[in-house]
């Protein structure tokens, strides 16, 4: 985990990526089939109770796993091209949020946690940059107003 200014986080060149989270030392199960969870809140669909994903998120986030669960409560799972995303926030706050980005074809996860003006990036595969979607960029821009504006579609 590393707290970085948002501009660096979003525009780092994939080949220049510095490992931010140690890769799990043991093989973990592939990502679950997200299809049955799309359009639903993970709390309601049971997404985070799927063992493979639960274990991978715990390995990735360590002590921040419970914070991630709390901060992603209000989000719904969406498909965005090849990615599956979740943008959520902790109910009753405007300064606690989380983003989950899964890239099933690359069997990779990235999680962004936002708390009180700081963004943490947790990459399961440190050298693989998963480009954030427009929705994620717009959400992060709300977190940190000086963040660059994404290009129009």
Question: How does this structure look, described?
Answer:
This protein is of the alpha+beta class. 25% of the residues lie in helices and 23% in strands. The protein has five helices and six strands. It has a six-stranded antiparallel sheet, with helices on both faces. It is globular and about 35 Å long. Residues 1-27 have low confidence and may be disordered.
Total beta strands? 6
Rounded average pLDDT: 79
- Give the distance, in angstroms, between the N- and C-terminal Cα atoms: 31 Å
- Order of H and E elements: EHHHHEEEEEH
The count of helical stretches stands at 5
- Described by the principal axes of the CA atoms, the overall outline is globular
C-alpha Rg, in Å? 14 Å
Unreliable segments of 5+ consecutive residues: 1-27
Helix content: 10-25%
Instruction: Supply the number of structural domains.
Output: 1
Largest sheet: 6 strands, antiparallel
Spatial strand order of the main sheet: 1-6-5-4-3-2
Strand content: 15-25%
- What structural category arises from helix and sheet content? alpha+beta
């Amino acid at each position: 985990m590393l707290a970085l200014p948002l501009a660096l986080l979003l525009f780092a060149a994939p080949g220049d990526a510095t490992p931010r989270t140690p890769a799990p030392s043991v093989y973990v199960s592939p990502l679950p089939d997200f299809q049955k969870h799309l359009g639903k809140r993970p709390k309601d669909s049971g997404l985070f109770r799927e063992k493979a994903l639960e274990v991978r998120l715990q390995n990735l986030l360590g002590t921040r796993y419970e914070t991630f669960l709390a901060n992603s409560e209000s989000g719904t799972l969406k498909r965005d091209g090849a990615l599956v995303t979740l943008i959520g926030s902790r109910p009753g706050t405007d300064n606690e949020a989380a983003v989950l980005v899964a890239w099933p074809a690359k069997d990779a996860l990235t999680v962004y946690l936002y708390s009180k003006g700081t963004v943490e990036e947790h990459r399961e595969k440190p050298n693989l940059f998963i480009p954030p979607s427009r929705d994620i960029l717009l959400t992060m821009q709300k977190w940190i107003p000086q963040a660059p504006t994404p290009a129009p579609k």
